[in-house]
Amino acid sequence: QAQLVESGGRSVQAGGSLRLDCVASSGIGGTFEDYDMAWFRQAPGKEREFVAHIRRNSGDTHGADSVKGRFIISRDNGQNTVFLQMNRLKPGDTASYYCAADLWVGKRFAERVEYDYWGQGTQVTVSS
Fold first, then answer.
1. Rounded to whole angstroms, how far apart are CA atoms 118 and 34?
2. How confident is the prediction along the chain (128 residues), in pLDDT tens digits per residue?
3. Distance in angstroms (rounded) separating the CA atoms of residues 117 and 104
4. CA 116 to chain centre
């Protein structure tokens, strides 16, 4: 059973930056580099939505339109870690941010049902 632990969430003013980290435990099957990784977020009263995805092996990335040009997803397979660098934050980015993993999500990388493993979330609050 994969275990994912997010960190880095905090309160920040609009226009600021944060970096979120997600570390995968050694208990996951296979190796970290075999997993597609993604970030989702959920604001109070709203559905959990896709933020960004990074493909296993190739490292190809995809991002939601709302964060393109501001957020960058990356990974360090040697550290079993996926990162989300968030720049030019807006109050609308306020949410709990969740890390997700799966061995293969294909073209459905933005669909939360495709991911079998989830972290507990880390809270990001952006004030105006």
1. 16
2. 558 999 999 999 999 999 999 999 865 567 888 899 999 999 999 999 999 999 998 889 999 999 999 999 999 999 999 999 999 999 999 999 999 999 888 899 999 999 999 999 999 999 99
3. 12
4. 14
3-state secondary structure 92-128: HHCEEEEEEEECCCCCCCCCHHHCCEECCCEEEEEEC
Amino acid identity, residue 124? V
The backbone torsions φ and ψ at residue 6, rounded to the nearest 5 degrees and listed phi first, read: -90, 155
Instruction: Give the dihedral sign, CA 111/66/68/38.
Output: negative
